[in-house]
Amino acid sequence: MSYILEERKKQIARVGGAVRDIDCGKVSVAGSVSQRACVFCGSRVVLYPVADALHIIHGPIGCASYTWDIRGSLSSGPELHRLSFSTDLREKDVVFGGIEKLRKSLDELIDKHSPKAAFVYSTCIVGVIGDDVESLCAQMEKEKGIPVIAVEAPGFQGSKKDGYKIACEALFKLVGTIEKPVPKYTINILGDFNLAGELWILLEYYKKMGIHVNASITGDGRVDDIRNAHNASLNVVQCSGSMIHLAKMMKEKYNVPFLRVSYFGIEDMSDALYDVAKFFKSDELMDAARKLVKEELGRLLPALSFYKQALTGKRAAIYVGGAFKAISLVKALRLIGMKTVVIGSQTGDKEDYKLIQQLCDDDTIIVDDSNPVELSAFVKETKADLFIGGVKERPIAYKIGLGFCDHNHERKEALAGYDGMLNFAKEVYATCMSPVWKFVK
Amino acid sequence: MDAIKNIPQIKKPSYVSSRNACKLCAPLGASLVFKGIEGCIPMIHGSQGCATYIRRYMISHYKEPMDIASSNFSEESTIYGGNKNFVQGIDNIRKQYSPKVMGIASTCLSETIGEDIPALIAEYKTGKEDDKTMPLFVHASTPSYQGTHMDGFHEAVLGAIKSLSKEGTKQERINLFSGFISPADIRMLKEIMNDFEIEYTLFPDYSESLDNPCWKDYHLIPEGGTPVKDIENTANAKASIEFGTVLNKGSIPGRILDKKGVLSAGEWLQDKYLIENNTVLLPTGIDASDKFFGLLEKYTGKKMPLKYALQRGRLVDSYIDSHKYVFGKKAMIYGEEDLVISLCSFLAEIGITPIIIASGGESGLLKNELVSRSLIDPDTTIVMSGADFESMRDIALEVHPDILIGNSKGYYISRELGVPLVRIGFPIHDRAGGPRQKQLCYEGTQELFDRIVNALLEYKQEHSPIGYKYM
Which of A113, A308, B169, B219 is least surrounded, with the fewest CB atoms within 10 Å of its CB? Predict the structure, then answer.
């Protein structure tokens, strides 16, 4: 049995065990090989999909190199977000300051690419060497006539989740700076990243219902839409860990209410559409939603039954970034006959974990901010057949002969919506049923 | 074939900013070296993200578990020093992994606030002299504001040799510092050394640790790595062979510290233990491979085994069979400085002209290395040091190379140009099998040569209106 660090024991629980709150929302323990990244990462992933903005990383080169075109957030138009700009600070800059380099970089890049806004991410050492990025951004904003927003995200100042918050604050600076009229039933979509075109699936659903999407803030995002986001009637928030802060601020300042939804799995996807219809108190919208769900299920359920038959009884381990996604996955797995035996997340909060405890079967292991030592031991102990996770979890699963479903941010298969549920079933089936495992078992 | 004229006259605006960097940060190189020490786990002294990003980047290439710990700096550590996190980090790693060796790399953050890692290590060990499970420590100073991942790599190689080499009885053995190469190439080099029946230390050897078979249970520290005993014995070898001529030499722009005295691992051993050092190109191509095998013949007093003579013969034969398909083609090659130099040496043998040679490295030595070895014609070749991918793209759109050779990050340029990309080196994030690719010695050159030939043949066939069945 592998070693569980003393400091981490309260971050692990078993459903049906001594009931208690899981310790969460803490910084990772030194030496634990956490699967989390850092504050900078949190801010970068949220802002990344704003496709017509310039994203420049002020700091030494690593942070820019490792995040170049890292996410599968697709754009239907400009693709400036897929380029990796950095001031690439050197020792001289560290000693004498990097602000001039940043000024020149912003000057040349804004002139070349004519972005609608610029996000300037400061990494670990920028604060330490005393660069006043905020003032420079204010100056550049005046000079260039576009919003230039400082995203002060030194990696050490908290955890990835704090980075989400910083990104929300950066976005909030844009919100409310343009006034454009919007149609009657207008929503913003927050927290869908348009991975593998998932947003476009959702847009189709909302369009069929007669709902207008004003700003898709974190997927196929556009600066002007975000600036006008306060004119929507409702914020529909997925991946609540990353975007709930923006939703709350918009509620407070602009009185835009919000709903938490998930687009993974049939139940959650359908609830999302119903909840939006309910919010607008419109029979017309509700009828359209019912019709859409009926049609989609009419197609989907017969297609799923094949997979359910094949996969029933198999056991899954889930370890993903956000707990809300994990919860949806438990339900989606049930739909194809599978049981969750391990569930964890990098950034879940107390409420999420409570919900997980209610939802999951007895003895399911629940873990916050886990690491390879624990995860590999948990999947072994629970005899999981499948692991659902991101890039860093994949080799843990494969190395010890487990199937794996990529629920990461560079995936090429859409997993959201009804079509996404079918893709999910297909991917789980492909990995569980592959003949290759006979050579390792 | 188009005449290639006046290419270096093409001037593009230069940028202050880095646009799609063609380099990674120093702690990545150091982590890789630490993975090549048996029983070692790396720890990065800095923010959590450094370790996680590097793990993720390396996993996408090696497709292997990649446990790299972090001391996970907090605001408090940044203000008051990271000692507490350093100690807690090491304690926790020891509890979980029981490593024999710990490799510690610094970061931009820990270096900027002035963390003294040797002092932190010494302090950690103080009062624990009787602790039998105390790991050995190796460290590398790797602020990412100094140089690239290759500087981190060589810094860690030197760091390991400095702290682990141990003088004893002289032995009939060779040190082979093989540089940043693929696990498959490392395995091949070991086979060559074994076939020459000579004792050797190949360092760093991540051929198993980053390319393992499946396991029944998770192995916290993967098998493989250069045994510590072998690293100790580098002090007792009769000669060292280093692949790469740039290594950690040269100036690094923006560097203030006087690093004139900086040595490679081979030079350091020569300095300290009078071990003859040989610096050769990464052996891709026949000439460079001949030089390497020549050194092995010299130090073993044995002739090259027939197996390799035959490989060489087949390689020459295949050069001839396919020479027309490659001759006169213009290539853009990019990647680490030592990699592109060895590629130039190889391409010169087969009549491909590198018209753009680019590296994110900035030793200041690249052009001189190429010209002084007569590997390029400076009038027809653009050599870009400290280059990023957008600068390469700007030039490539002007001079339109026929083929790109480099890591997978240049794919978007080859796609835009509509020309083939032969993926080599690190990273290869969009294809399977990067760690199993070979490009060294006769056998690896054969593999690379065939890939280049086939890429060009495929391009021609795909663009032919006929759809022919013979070459």
Answer: B169
pLDDT in tens, chain A (441 residues): 468 999 999 999 999 887 678 999 888 999 999 999 999 999 999 999 999 999 999 999 999 999 999 988 999 999 999 999 999 999 999 999 999 999 999 999 999 999 999 999 999 999 899 999 999 999 999 999 999 999 999 999 988 999 999 999 999 999 999 999 999 999 999 999 999 999 999 999 999 999 999 999 999 999 999 999 999 999 999 977 799 999 999 999 999 999 999 999 999 999 999 999 999 999 999 999 999 999 999 999 999 999 999 999 999 999 999 898 899 999 999 999 999 999 999 999 999 999 999 999 999 999 999 999 999 999 999 999 999 999 999 999 999 999 999 998 888 999 999 999 999 999 999 999 999 999 987
Q: What is the Cα A251 distance to its own chain's centre?
A: 21
Q: Which residues of chain B does A163 touch, with a Cβ-Cβ cutoff of 8 Å?
A: none
Contact in structure between B289 and B312 (CB atoms under 8 Å): yes
Architecture of the A6-25+312-410 domain = 3-Layer(aba) Sandwich (3.40)
- Cα B337 to Cα B329: distance, rounded to the nearest angstrom: 22
Residues in B 110-149 with any Cβ partner in A closer than 8 A: 112-113, 143-146, 148
Q: Is B69 on the interface with A (CB under 8 A)?
A: yes
Contact at CB, A91 and B143, closer than 8 angstroms: yes
Q: Are strands A258-260 and A117-122 parallel, antiparallel or unpaired?
A: unpaired
Our CA-based measurement puts residue B49 at a distance from the nearest CA of chain A, in whole angstroms, of 4
ipTM of the complex: 0.96
Domain definitions of chain B by residue range:
26-282, 321-462
Length of chain B in terms of residues written: 471
Radius of gyration of chain B (CA): 23
| A62 in contact with chain B, both atoms CB, cutoff 8 A | yes
CATH of B321-462, one of 3.40.50.620, 3.40.50.720, 3.20.20.60, 3.40.50.1980: 3.40.50.1980
Q: How far is B74 from chain A (nearest CA, A)?
A: 5
CATH of region A39-172: 3.40.50.1980
Partner residues linked to A367 by β-bridges: A12, A344
CA–CA gap between residue B320 and residue B335 (Å, rounded) = 28
